[in-house]
Amino acid sequence: MPFRAILISKTDTGQKVEFVSLTEADLMEGDVTVDVTHSSVNYKDGLALTAKSPIVRRFPLIPGIDFAGTVRQSSNPRWKPGDRVVLNGWGVGEQHHGGFSEVARVPGDWLVPVPEGWTCADTMAVGVAGYTAMLCVMALEEQGVKPGDGDILVTGAAGGVGTTAIVILAKLGYRVVASTGRVSEAAFLKELGAAAVVDRNEFNTPVKPLAKARWAGAIDSVGSVTLANVLSQTNPEGTVVACGLAQGMDLPATVAPFILRGIRLIGVNSVTTPMPRRLACWQRIRRDLDLAKLKILTSHVTLDEVPRIGAEIVAGKVRGRVVVDIR
Question: 39 near 66, Cβ under 8 Å?
């Protein structure tokens, strides 16, 4: 049976994004075939759809770095037809056909179960961005950052990682300060749980080796000058968790925060996270992410709207999470 998908193809002048009709014969190798019900639009998806960054590693490719749905067919012992599953990362939407499609085929060892009591739509309201946010919170906890230690800064606060991180941290009792370039979103961010909102331009100034200490910890999805300034402002023995590069891949910092304040910089890789940690992360999401707050920060679109949303998310015009209702 034919199914509908978005396909990115290579052209002489760049790339082409189009809606196509495919069959299972067009899918890549894998031992589980999934009827996809939902996906989401993440910043990386926006980069892939707009060709702003070389996210797509092979052509033609179905984009979409996450999806959820129901197993149609499986030769993997972990899964049987009818099981509800989630996929985040593993190069899907980069070098393996992804989630902007009505059907997907992937290795079953990339999949995790939809949490009990949740819908497939709920899991995509979390998506790669929210899953990454929880990995960041877990990293702060593992470095000993406690709610009573002081303010936690979240940069890129109006985006998918930022909004979800605010909701989780606030529920866990942390005092969250949200940094955003969209100060008009201050009321929205406070509704999610931020105690205060600061303009991102405070972190876009020339970097001092050491600035006034302000943060017990931070979750940064921006990188570049912003991350360097955050490091210089972090309290002695504090922890900064880095998970993104919206501003750039460079890091114009010095060693001063590390050798004079004992700052820890922890990187989060959400693409190839080992399965035990991946499962533990989803257990924490189910326990510590307020579904009511998640709905506040989530909007829904159809597959037809994905190219437009991809461009808007790269332009910084999208707040929170965007779920794609595939079917």
Answer: yes
Percent of residues in the chain assigned helix, strand, coil, to nearest 5: 35, 30, 35
Per-residue DSSP letters for 116-154? TT--HHHHHHHHHHHHHHHHHHHHHHHTT--GGG--EEE
CB 219 within 8 A of CB 140: yes
Structure token pair of residue 51: 């060709």
**CA distance linking residue 257 with residue 21, whole number of Å:** 53
> Whole-angstrom Cα distance, residue 136 to residue 240?
9
Q: Which domains does the chain have, with CATH numbers?
A: 3-114+297-325 (3.90.180.10), 128-267 (3.40.50.720)
pTM of the model: 0.93
Q: Kind of pairing, strands 321-325 and 32-40?
A: antiparallel
What's the rounded Cα separation, in Å, for the pair 165 and 152?
A: 10
CB-based contact 98:65 (threshold 8 Å): yes
User: Please, what sign has the CA dihedral across residues 245, 278, 30, 24?
Assistant: negative
The reported pLDDT for the residue numbered 312 is 96
pLDDT in tens, 263-274: 999 999 999 999
- Two tokens, residue 103: 């059907």
| Residue 300 identity | H
**Torsion sign, CA atoms 313, 318, 320, 324:** negative
